Amino acid sequence: MLETWKKWIKQTTNTIMHWLQQEKRSFSDIAQFIRQHPNTSVTERTWLGLTYRFYSLHLDDVVLTMETRKMKENEEHILFMTLSYPDSSPIVYRSYDEKSDLNDMVTIPPLTQKTAPIPQ
Description:
Elements: H1 2-21, E1 23-26, H2 27-36, E2 41-47, E3 50-59, E4 62-70, E5 76-84, E6 91-94, E7 105-108
Antiparallel strand pairs: 1-7, 2-3, 3-4, 4-5, 5-6
């Protein structure tokens, strides 16, 4: 019984600490973080003359993915972005969804402690 209580208290403490450390960021900030992080892997594909980039970044227990369409030399349009971490529903941005906006603020786990700065 004591071990069960200890386990429950530890889980509760971890959950509260995780909740307190969360930060609010816009999808635009998260996209910039993904692009600038040194561990991001980028794949580029061209279909029917349209070039798409696929970004993937794994940080501890957080997984960030992003799909973009290349517009001009250094411009790209964000089509889709997800941020997933354990015990939580994924946070998703879809450019075709009228309810999604790159300036929407979302609550995420602390990424600023994961080796690359998020623009302020």
